[in-house]
Amino acid sequence: MFPGSGPAISLHWVSSSPLSLLHRVEAQREELTKTGRKVAQYLLANGDQVAFGTVADVAHECGVGVASVHRLALQLGYSGFTEMQDAARSEMSQRLRPASEKIRTPSGGDAVERVLAVETRNIESTLRSLDRSALVAMVKMLVDDKRRVLVASGEASRGVATQFAAEMAALRDGVEILSGNSVAASAQVARSRRGDVIVVVDFHRYDAWLIEAVEQAAAHGMQVWTVSDSRLSPLGMQAHHNFEVAAESASPFDSHVAALVFFSLVVTMAAEALRNAATKRVDAVERAWRDGGLLRES
Questions:
Q1: How many domains does the chain contain in total?
Q2: How many CA atoms lie within 13 A of 105 on its CB side?
């Protein structure tokens, strides 16, 4: 936390490199001006903006002049904004590298504390960066029983998608999983009507068939909503909105914790909107399970 800067910021990404942006800011924090601290806080909390935005974008978001951003880059030891941006891209690439590389990197410290820190950061950064108006708009479509809902995912995130689809199906009719077979998926999309909804989740190294299915769904007039670990996900190119969820992990594999929390939020909002009808559905199912002796409490 910077002196006099208010609450601690939530980091979207952290690099272990001694020359990372985080380390450079920490080393210079006592020397930073009030404006420099403001820009530095923004850069640390919005690594993707540094990596893919322009110096003008960063200046605008911080409410400062372009020269202030350049001065901070120089103070942090970069030759200018371009070199700082290249470093940010490299750090982001390191975070997203495949499991086959990550598993070869030794890790130290207590695993429980490491996972706790990573997942807490994932959840907080995901929920705090949500576009709430887009979230409300998506839920409004999901609870419209005139719209059929398809839920699609890549292989790695199939468990997350299956859980979400099952919970939505408990609240309303017309919810189904999009087949992982490209031919079958194409047929499902073709049978949909204009205005139907498709919710798609997948992370970096996206399944090729899924990108094609999203493109077909958009061309077919479906309302496409995507959930991914990058605002530049190819899935989001055809989407009404792409929700970015953090997937940093202490293990070699992407974390799906923030994605599960995001979908839990969506289901919570949908259940509130469908409270009367959903209550009757859930009660009827519970009755059938109880009368059939299908579940045991202990």
A1: 2
A2: 16
Q: Which domain holds residue 79?
A: 21-95
Residue 127 lies in a domain: yes
Question: 151 with 168: CB under 8 angstroms?
Answer: yes
Instruction: Tell me 293's DSSP state.
Output: T
For tokens 């806080």, the residue is 41
Asked whether residue 257 is assigned to any structural domain, the reply reads: yes
Which residue in 156, 204, 213, 223 sits closest to 181, CA to CA?
Answer: 213
Alpha carbon distance 72, 95 (integer Å) = 24
Predicted TM-score (pTM) of the model is 0.65
Residues 138 and 280 placed together within one structural domain of the fold: yes
Q: What is the CATH number of the domain that holds 62?
A: 1.10.10.10
Q: How far apart are CA 52 and CA 49, in angstroms?
A: 5
Beta strand 175-177 with 149-153: parallel, antiparallel or unpaired? Answer: parallel
**Tens-digit pLDDT profile for residues 14-62:** 333 345 776 787 778 778 888 988 888 777 766 667 778 889 988 998 8
pLDDT in tens, 85-122: 888 777 666 555 554 555 455 556 688 888 898 899 99
CATH number for 243:
3.40.50.10490
Q: Does any domain span residue 178?
A: yes
Integer Cα distance of 200 and 152 in angstroms: 5
CA distances from 113 to 7, 116, 245 (A): 22, 5, 21
Report the first-to-last Cα separation within the chain, whole angstroms: 49
135: phi then psi, degrees, rounded to nearest 5: -60, -45
